[in-house]
Amino acid sequence: MIDFTVIGKPEPAGSKKGFVIKGHVVIADANKKAKPWKLEVEVAAIQAMGERPAYDEPLVAAFLFGMPRPKTVKRELPSVRPDTTKLIRAVEDACTGIVWKDDALIVMQHASKMYTDGPGFVRVIVTPHAAIRQEVPA
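User: That's the sequence. What structure does it adopt?
Assistant: Structure tokens below.
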């Protein structure tokens, strides 16, 4: 099992923009803040994995996102953008080749986002699916 936390404001990934530069199409992430966030996740993932190779088996992954609460917000939960799935996508992309060989190995995932009064964060917990041995209802 791997369990690590990255402190910082989680940033979404997923939406892309295309540009033509000197006759070639270039695809870039629409969120300019996604790249530095992914780098922070990569560094934490490398530290958490140590000398272990990336997983190459079915995995269960859990993601808990702590979103900094804006000062004027009164709602209990961050039921606004960014989408949880796009937050997950950024972490999955950053962990590919480090924690898992390919994010397609994730066969079950759990994710939630909440407000935090401190800095933002993501906590990532990854377990081989075989260790869970969960029964799937028929």
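The CA atoms of residues 16 and 30 lie 5 Å apart.
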